[in-house]
Structure formats: C-alpha cells, structure tokens
Automatic annotation (TrEMBL):
One of its GO terms (biological process) is negative regulation of DNA-templated transcription. GO terms for molecular function: DNA binding; DNA-binding transcription factor activity. Residues 11-78 form the HTH gntR-type domain. CDD domains: WHTH_GntR. This is GntR family transcriptional regulator. Signal peptide: none annotated. SMART domains: HTH_GNTR, UTRA. SUPFAM superfamilies: Chorismate lyase-like (SSF64288), Winged helix' DNA-binding domain (SSF46785). It comes from the Bacteria. Keywords: DNA-binding, Transcription, Transcription regulation.
C-alpha cells in the first residue's frame, strides 16, 4: 500500500502522520499483521523518524497500537474505554469542590528514566528528569500519593513553589499549557512503600491512576501516577455519546 502526506499543507506533519495511522488502524488489512517498519514508512512519507515516532507514540498510549521491541508495531485488539472531560490538576479539582487540601510530604529529585518513561518522553535513558512526589489529603489525614515525572523540555528547575496548582505553574512560569490528558484507572494492592505513606496495611485496595499529559502540540509533558485510598476517594467519569 502506498502512503503519502501533503508537505505543502499547513497541517503539521506529525498530525498528518497521526491521521494516516488512524486510517490504517481502521483498515481490515492491518487487523492481524504488523504495520510497515518505521524506517520504510518514514522514508515513504519523506519525514523524519522522530516525526513519525511522535505520531506512533500517541496512538500507542491511546491503546490503539502495540509496539513490541525488535518485532514491530501492530494494531491493538478493540477495547472499551471512557474519556473524562473537563480535567483539572488535583489542587484545582479539590478547590472546585470546596475541599481544603493539605500537603503532608513533598519530595523533589532528578532521576534517570526507565525505558518505558524514556520511550513516552522520547528521550534517552541517560537524560535526567524531574521527579515530584507528594502525599496529599484532608486535615484528618492523607488519602493520595502522587508521583510525577516531567519532560526536560519544560524547563522546571525544582525550585518552583509546588504548593501552587501544578498546571498553573507550568502555564504561568514556563509558558507550557497542559491541553490533553489520557488516563488509565485500575485497582491495585498497596505495596510496602505506598502502604507506609497512606498508613494502611500492605495489600490494602487502592485506586491506581496513570495520567499522560500533553501540551497543545501533542508533545508529552508529564507522566503521573496516583495512588488513592479506595474508601476515601471516588473518581467520576462523565462521557457524552457521539452521534
């Protein structure tokens, strides 16, 4: 099959590549086989592998594609998912509900990303990223432990006042607008570390949320993990049926 994109179009190349990939996903021809490899596809589209990978990464994290190292990329089996609308930072969510939030712990460090995180950010594993850990809750006690990693491109230094709403810091201090959030929610048993933070028994049920955050150019800016006490927090999803 011949692939092409319009290099004279005002639409960014990675957006065109993403749309092309979405059409391939719908094509029954690729329902049971791997997509063409990145090198050949990038060459045929006359774009860089980085541009193509940006489009591929987005669809991988939407769960539409599955990438197997050393083998290739294939279309994922159809699954059911929901989109939450009007998402906010945790501070903004709680403020909107009139719930005063207390920060019990705040830790900042620079760490080397593992392979999965480096893949999401599309950086090398020897490039350090800012890691922000926060234990948060109400006056009577904490109910969530957050771990966030940020793309080095943003320019966070670690000296920011992280008691402020996170996305306010990004927008006002670094001109980075969080525009798109993709989330995965599941049940998880508390390990020894999280159990000690939330003051529960090891193995206690938790609500576990992964959040992938992108800017207005669909570039990844944050990878966030949230561990919520199952009996202290309800996560509500509002979906609108499309005609």
């Amino acid at each position: 099959m011949k692939f092409s994109i319009d290099h004279k179009s005002p639409v960014p190349l990675h957006i065109q590549a993403e749309e092309l990939l979405r059409n391939l996903i719908k094509d029954p021809e690729y329902a049971t086989k791997f997509l063409p490899n990145e090198v050949d596809m990038a060459k045929q589209l006359a774009i860089s592998r980085t541009t193509l990978r940006q489009a591929l990464n987005k669809l991988v994290y939407e769960g539409l594609l599955i990438r197997k190292k050393g083998i290739g990329t294939k279309v994922a089996e159809v699954s059911v998912s929901s989109k939450a609308s009007n998402w906010l930072s945790f501070s903004q969510e709680m403020q909107a509900r009139g719930i005063p939030i207390r920060n019990f712990e705040l830790h900042i460090s620079w760490v080397l990303p593992d392979e999965k995180l480096a893949h999401f950010f599309d950086i090398d594993t020897d490039k350090k990223v800012l890691k922000l850990e926060r234990l948060r809750g109400k006056a009577e006690g904490p109910f969530v432990y957050f771990i966030s990693y940020f793309h080095p491109r943003i320019g966070l230094t670690g000296d920011e006042d992280f008691k402020r709403p996170l996305y306010e810091i990004l927008e006002k201090d670094h001109s980075v607008i969080a525009d798109l959030s993709k989330e995965e929610i599941s049940a998880k048993a508390a390990d020894k570390f999280i159990a000690s933070k939330l003051d529960v028994e090891v193995g206690s049920p938790l609500l576990f949320r992964k959040r992938y955050v992108f800017d207005q150019a669909d570039r990844p800016i944050e990878y966030n993990l949230g561990y919520y006490l199952a009996d202290s927090f309800v996560y509500t999803v509002e979906s609108r049926r499309e005609a």
